[in-house]
Amino acid sequence: MADLLDDPALGLVPVVDARRSDALRWVATSELDDPSPFLEGGEVLLTTGLETVGWTTRWDLYVRRLSAVGVVAIGLAVEMTHPVPPPELVSACRKHGVDLFEVPRATRFVAISRALASHLQREEESATRSALESQRALTQAALRENEPGALVEELARTGSMAAVIGADGVVLLGPFGERPELLDISTVGDAVAQIRRQGLRAAASLSSPGGTLLVNPLGVKGRPDRYLVVGFGGRVGDAQRSTVTTAVALLSLAEERRRASREADRRLHSRAVELVTSGDVRTAQVLLGASSGPRIRLPRQAAVLRASGPAASLEDGRARLERDGVLAGATGRDDTPELVCVTRADGAESAARSLRAAGLRIGIGEPQPIGELAVSHETAGHALRLTTVDAPVVSWSEGVRRGVLSLVDGPRAAAFAASYLAPLEAEPALVETLGSYLRHHGSLLKVADDLGVHRNTVRHRVERIESLLDRSLMDPQVRVDAWVALRTRQGGAGS
Q1: How many domains, in total, are found in the chain?
Q2: Do 345 and 222 have their domain in common?
Q3: Is the model's pLDDT at 61 over the cut of 90?
Q4: Both 139 and 250 in a single domain?
Q5: Which intervals hold domain Purine catabolism PurC-like (predicted)?
Q6: Is residue 23 part of a domain?
């Protein structure tokens, strides 16, 4: 708008001058009392006001309609129908946010159209040159660096901000540029979660009070796990979008190189996990030394974690562990895939949280010296089989401290308890006596004191219990079975 108003050859006189920085699409000329149906927005509307003679209150509706379709300004030819812009028109323009300027009698409408066309053509040529320069700079950055950081930093100069984030919303590169605050990670993370299921074909354009964010997946094939985010302070032009498209293509090639290197490392890591959990620490260390990624050091005291779940969740969990520098490998058959990781003994809970955030079930094995992880691997498997929807993370060591009942499957334990104690259910005193008898290690005197009955009564009840169960309470196995049944009946199993 400023380019048009400041053109000395036109001699335009601003009256309401609040939208100088607005972009213009075209110039339209109309004498209709309602030209809004024929406009698309972004125009300057030129009129002589031929049909507006005698208007007072009608100006408000006229301007309101133009504002609603996005007209930027009205150019009124003066010294014709109106010697000067009517006060009601000026007031309506201020009210509805539409600029107003006078067109001198000597200035023809076609001259204004020609001037704007010339400005738009120069702007387009400038944008094209700028886009070519940006694309050339991006290509040079891509050739100059193996890592994409230089390319993303160069891209930030096209807009106001550029960054690369992971599928989980973690910032991996950047944000670069003069306006890093444009990266609203919460909003971008939500957008990535929405478009990720659509793969590499999906993208998002997000508007905010601060500007516009373009979000694009990176990669050539497979499921994307990195996204390019570019922020602009205002409207995004075609040339800028073209530059972003070029950057996405270049970064996607870099992403494929990174993935190929990562897959090679992952094969090494999976084999290293198999070796270290079978006791061959030396060979595992040799393999880890051949990895092209960050060096992973094996701890002296370690714990094995085994995780299961959908393939996509296993992939996300593995990516989280890799970012944390934890050794992880894929094992198991195709129908029962597992993710196995080896971490510091004091880092097991943290690793389990990362895996749980990916939607997996996790068994934590018993901590062991690094050369003796077969035990930790086995107990992690036992713990994994004890996980449920309500208890997705089970630690074998914690289960041992809580006792064997915490390791017993709840429904099976309940069925066992119901069947075992069924012969006694008709006489509640017998169930009570059995519990006291087991707590006091078979002391009839202590049971009598506990229940407030005579010692002979206790003896008769014990004999009755043994008769109904057809088992002797002197047998340690019977006492164990009875204790498990009673605890389960009281809600102890799985607690």
Answers
A1: 4
A2: no
A3: yes
A4: yes
A5: 3-119
A6: yes
